[in-house]
Amino acid sequence: MKDFTKKLITLSLAMLMLFGGLVASIPAQASTMDDYTLDEIYEDLVQEILEEQGEWHPLMVPTILENTGLIIANDTTSEIIAEAWYYDEDGNEVEVDLIEYAEMMNESYQINAEDEALQIMIDLGLYRIPHESVTTRGVGAGISYRFFSITNTSPLGNSSRMTPHFVGPATITVSSSITSSRTFTAGISVAGQNQITSTVNFTAHSSATSAVGGTWSVPRNSTGAVWFQPRFNRAEGTLERRSNGQVMSTRHNVFVRSPRRLNSGHADGIWSLRLS
After folding, report:
1. Of 7, 54, 240, 272, which sees the most CB atoms within 10 A?
2. What is the spatial distance between Cα 231 and Cα 209, in angstroms, rounded to a whole number?
3. How far is Cα 188 from Cα 185, in angstroms, rounded to an integer?
4. Three-state SS for 92?
5. Which of 159, 128, 256, 263 shows the shortest CA–CA distance to 201?
6. Per-residue b/e over 242-265, b at no fewer than 16 CB within 10 Å?
7. Four-CA torsion 26, 28, 32, 35, nearest 10 degrees
């Protein structure tokens, strides 16, 4: 990732020098440096992020668990998840099917990698043209925004380790919490953000904090810790900036990610026992 980011920085500086910093207004076919288009940079960056995160696969390893022996393992990080659960709206612990959890994580990794790649491109001044199409049609007072939501998903966020590692057989109790925050596509004004949060069909919480408590067991001959992976509501769509009713600019693939909350007020998400 570091080498690829250096490549992006070099390309960004070169393009700013060549095109006077007007990267966002360059047609896609002209946005090329040594036949390396912005779309290709974006796709390569997404793939680079996915390769670092790895992919989860179900495995049967009877010697690790005393019960079913089903685990899911990450082919890059070598992490192993032995069991997973979540809390329902009434605070009850509900077991998560590990095969379904692996599918959820892999799908979420794709969404998260695309969001992260877009943010990096924007931060470096390299705008992927289909995501950042701005056409100025007028200037004036009475600025307002309209957001048209196109897709709604509920991806999982990054996992956080909530306990130290314990050598089994051992009992683990969660005594710490973590807070997840709402994020938007980079470069959206506060007024634009307010329009987005008032338009989406879910409550766009600014933050949510995980619950504390719960006890889980590490099997013998293993070392384990409890992890938490928050769940987000995510909306993606088109944001129009208007002046006295006239469209001044349009941004496509604008997104908001908001942490989901349970009735208890705690963050929604999936807890897991990860072994090594």
Report:
1. 272
2. 11
3. 6
4. coil
5. 256
6. bbeeeebebbbbbbbbbbbbbeee
7. -170
CA 129, 106, 272, 49 torsion-angle sign: negative
Give the predicted TM-score (pTM) of the model: 0.78
Mean pLDDT of all residues in 180-186: 92
For residue 274, what are its two tokens?
């990860």
114: left (phi over 0), alpha (psi -120 to 50) or beta: alpha
Helix (H, G, I), strand (E, B) or coil at 171: strand
Tens of pLDDT, residue by residue over 184-230, are 988 888 888 999 999 998 999 999 999 887 788 888 888 899 999 99
Closest of 211, 206, 195, 201 to residue 251, by C-alpha: 195
Q: What are phi and psi of 108, to 5 degrees?
A: -65, -40
Q: What is the distance between the alpha carbons of residues 275 and 71, in angstroms, rounded to a whole number?
A: 10
